[in-house]
Design a protein that fits this description.
The protein is an alpha+beta fold. The chain has two domains: 166 residues, Fructose-1,6-Bisphosphatase, subunit A, domain 1 (Fructose-1,6-Bisphosphatase, Chain A, domain 1); 119 residues, D-Maltodextrin-Binding Protein, domain 2. The chain contains eight helices and 15 strands. The strands form three sheets. Strands 4-3-5-6-7-8-9-10 form an eight-stranded mixed β-sheet, with helices on both faces. Strand 9 and strand 10 form a beta hairpin. The longest helix has 16 residues. The N and C termini lie far apart (48 Å).
């Protein structure tokens, strides 16, 4: 393991972006220590009408408070907030998108979940994903990691042992393996479109292995390591899919492209979509370029 900490690594970045990354990273122990105690329901619903779990709500509150303390964040767009939250001091140049606990349905069963963050510096709160200056996620797994994409590429940091807040660089300038070997596919097969059904069959015939854990951050992390693709496609009854463009699809698409891969909404790059609503959903496919290209070719036939 390269003995370089996340804090040391971020000194090479814009100091405001570094402050955002470190604000989230420094909360890891506090969040992790609460996991055994907040596995129930909060008794409230988020903006999507979904029952909020106690840990979702608490984590959102902790992250929002810490990010606002940096003084560099102007607005936060979070899954757990009814609308974008603006800094009451009217300071800061950055908009942060936040999925406090992606995969929170896995909390009860003690499976993988994590935190997804996107950062952009634009006058408008809603902007194309390609305008992000940074995107990263925390994965709370057997090993806690932080994977970050910036102008320096994609780097993975591993949380140090108890008693230390440090993350250490473990993988530098990560790139997708070629050829990709895995596929992580969401939605019920009975609800897939004919185009997506054909694509999946072709991938199965090519020997791709199916691995799906129900948390975008966990499934994405496998693809980043082994290559392949993650999909939550358009469905017959949900043409816009399930995942949120601003807080989920854009950050992960930014990371996959920085790792040499590609993203698609079945028609083109997810990062080229201009959102008109912070809660907008989109079909999302991320992975090796050749696989995403093939996905679009098949969808183009229908």
């Amino acid at each position: 393991m390269t003995e370089k900490t996340l804090e040391q690594h971020t000194t090479d970045l814009n100091e405001d972006v570094a402050a955002i990354i470190n604000a989230v990273a420094n909360l890891t122990d506090e969040i992790f220590n609460e996991l055994p105690h907040r596995r129930g329901m909060a008794g409230t619903k988020n903006v999507f009408g979904e029952e909020q779990k106690a840990l979702d709500v608490w984590t959102n509150d902790v992250l929002v408070e810490e990010l606002m303390k940096t003084g560099v964040v102007r607005t936060i767009v979070s899954e757990e907030l009814g609308e974008p939250l603006h800094n009451p001091e009217e300071t800061g140049d950055y908009v942060v998108t936040l999925d406090p606990l992606d995969g929170s349905s896995n909390i009860e069963s003690n499976n993988l979940f994590g935190t997804i963050v996107g950062v952009h510096k634009e006058k408008e709160t809603l902007t194309k994903g390609k305008n992000q200056v940074c995107a990263f996620y925390n994965l709370y797994g057997p090993i806690t990691t932080l994977v970050c994409a910036t102008k320096d590429g994609v780097n993975e940091f591993v949380k140090h042992r108890k008693g230390s807040t440090d993350y250490f660089l473990s993988r530098k300038n990560m790139k997708l393996k070629e050829p990709g070997s895995l596929m992580s596919i969401g939605g019920l097969p009975k609800d897939w479109t004919p185009a997506y059904r054909e694509f999946v069959q072709e991938m199965m015939d090519a020997g791709k292995k199916i691995r799906y854990g129900g948390a975008f951050v966990g499934d994405f992390n496998q693809i980043l390591y082994y290559g392949g693709f993650f999909s939550y496609p358009s469905l017959v009854d949900k043409p816009n899919g399930k995942l949120r463009l601003v807080i989920e699809a854009n950050p992960m698409s930014f990371i996959i492209e920085a790792a040499g891969g590609a993203c698609s909404n079945e028609k083109g790059s997810v990062l080229e979509i201009l959102p008109d609503d912070p809660n907008q959903r989109t079909p999302i496919h991320v992975g090796n370029k050749d696989l995403i290209k093939r996905l679009e070719e098949i969808h183009g036939k229908y």
